[in-house]
């Protein structure tokens, strides 16, 4: 069993989500957090608000402070237009490592620059 909650979420995603499908990754994170352990991510309900803001503003550049497991980064990146970028900053090395793997698995690594 993975040591931290964040590592357990990652393992669940790697085992159950479809590689390269950001929505599948988000769905599996939501499922894990609903059925197994709470985690401090935006989640599916509040995530819809974020989706609406992104669709209304259609940004070229986004800054996120606090990456955690990468949930919001994936949620944002999947809606960015071609050439748009998300810079996300995480101060915790372990969380940054999990987020990097999650972002890569979701297939949005080309739109996300994670800074630790």
List the helices and strands and how they pair.
Layout lengths: L4 H12 L5 H14 L7 H15 L3 E5 L5 H7 L7 E5 L3 H14 L5 E4 L1
Parallel strand pairs: 1-2, 2-3
Helix pairs in contact: 1-2, 1-5, 2-5, 3-4
CATH architecture, by name, is 3-Layer(aba) Sandwich
Largest sheet, in brief, is:
3 strands, parallel
Number of alpha- plus pi-helical segments: 5
- Name the beta content range: 5-15%
CATH class type: Alpha Beta
CATH topology: Rossmann fold
Protein name: catechol O-methyltransferase
Pfam families: Methyltransf_3 (PF01596)
InterPro entries: SAM-dependent_MTases_sf, SAM_O-MeTrfase
GO molecular function: catechol O-methyltransferase activity
Q: Could you characterize what this model shows?
A:
With 116 residues, the protein is of the alpha/beta class. It has one domain (5-115): Rossmann fold. Helices cover 53% and strands 12% of the residues. The chain contains five helices and three strands. The protein has helices at residues 5-16, 22-35, 43-57, 71-77, 93-106; strands spanning 61-65, 85-89, 112-115. It has a three-stranded parallel sheet with strand order 1-2-3, with helices on one face. Helix 4 links the parallel strand 1 (61-65) and strand 2 (85-89). It is globular and about 35 Å long. The protein starts with a helix and ends with a strand. 33% of the residues are buried. The model has no long low-confidence stretch (mean pLDDT 96). Pfam families: Methyltransf_3 (PF01596). InterPro entries: SAM-dependent_MTases_sf, SAM_O-MeTrfase. Keywords: Catecholamine metabolism, Methyltransferase, Neurotransmitter degradation, S-adenosyl-L-methionine, Transferase.
